[in-house]
Amino acid sequence: MRIALLITPFTDQNLQRAAQIGVTDIVSVYPGLDLNYLLELRKRVESFGLRLSAVERLLPTLKFIHNLPGRDQQIEDFKTLIRNMGKAGVSTLCYSWMPADDWQRTDLEAAERGGAKVTAFEQDKPSSVPTDTGYRKESNDSTSAERLWGNLEYFLKEVVPVAEESGVKLSMHPDDPPVENLRGQPQIMTSPEAYERMVKIVESPSNGICLCQGTMAASAREYDIPATIKRLAPYINYAHFRDVVGSGSSFRESFHDNGKSDMVACMNAYHEAGIDCPIRPDHVPTLAGETNEYPGYHMLGRLWAVGYMRGLMQAVESQKP
Predict the structure, then answer these.
(1) What is the pLDDT of residues 22-39, one digit of tens each?
(2) What is the mean pLDDT of the chain?
(3) CB-based contact 285:301 (threshold 8 Å)
(4) Percentage with pLDDT > 70 across the chain
């Protein structure tokens, strides 16, 4: 496993900090469709001794998720992004099939250890959305689960061959929160079974998953996360390392060492399965002195999380016979 970081804000100082604390891989949000921009971004990252290895978040996807007007053009744009990533040597594209804009929370300032701020979700409260792709569904009608699956099949049959040709690994992120119905809109990517169904639609190393531990841990089904990692290991192209307290319709995020999961066993599961892909700390608490302008994505919590992850990795690797 290689520790990756999605940096907010994306400054040279934060890139240098990432290199200093032992990060090897950098993740970019959606870079647009300009190949030259992506090549310059890679050059900038590499100037700090780091590798630009993944793209995720803020991707324009809702037209093909819901089969809205402009679907095929949005798929063609997605293919262009994949081809550009291949040309730039960026190997991993993390996306989701979330029918809303992005991950959903109802509280952006829930209390964690020492007064740190984390995000939380309560099913019966209105959303307080921390991120927005800038595009909303053009219809108030919900898209059925059956139609979401049909739209996904159409999409995968179009884009997976392009990903194979480009040397890019697609990594499906689960719906967050992992509830089957979010305010009247069905969601389909909420379980290991859904992941297994998805990868069988087009069987390819380029059609894989992002194993988001925190999302799986938040499920009402109370999954054994280390066992889930081992179960889905053949399909894991990317991973998010985080945890929560609570589950189902009520949960909050936590420090990585203060949640419900056995994080030592989780890291050991990746190691035992022989998984070698980027893994990032994902959402982190906002600490004292930070503005909480970017809930889950401030830098102090990331610095702490990377140190914790590196310690776990070294401990797990030291157990080699």
Answers:
(1) 999 999 999 999 999 999
(2) 94
(3) yes
(4) 95
pTM: 0.95
- What percent of the chain clears pLDDT 90, i.e. is strictly above it? 89
The answer to whether the peptide bond before residue 177 is cis (omega within 30 degrees of 0) is yes
Domains of the chain (ranges, CATH numbers): 2-317 (3.20.20.150)
Q: Residue 299 and residue 174: Cα distance in Å, rounded?
A: 24
Residue-level length of the chain: 321
Q: For residue range 52-105, list pLDDT tens digits in order.
A: 999 999 999 999 999 999 999 999 999 999 999 999 999 999 999 999 867 889
Residue 125, CA distances (Å) to 120, 187, 190 in order = 11, 18, 20
Residues 45 and 26: beta-carbon distance below 8 Å:
yes
Q: How far apart are CA 177 and CA 11, in angstroms?
A: 30
Dmax (CA) of the chain: 58
Nearest Cα neighbor of 173 from 19, 303, 57, 1 is 57
Q: Residue 36 contacts by C-beta under 8 Å, 6 or more apart in sequence?
A: none
The predicted structure's pLDDT at residue 225: 98
DSSP H helical ranges for the chain: 12-20, 35-46, 62-66, 71-88, 145-166, 192-201, 213-217, 225-232, 263-273, 299-317
CA–CA separation, 216 vs 221, rounded Å?
9
H helix count then E strand count, the chain: 10, 14
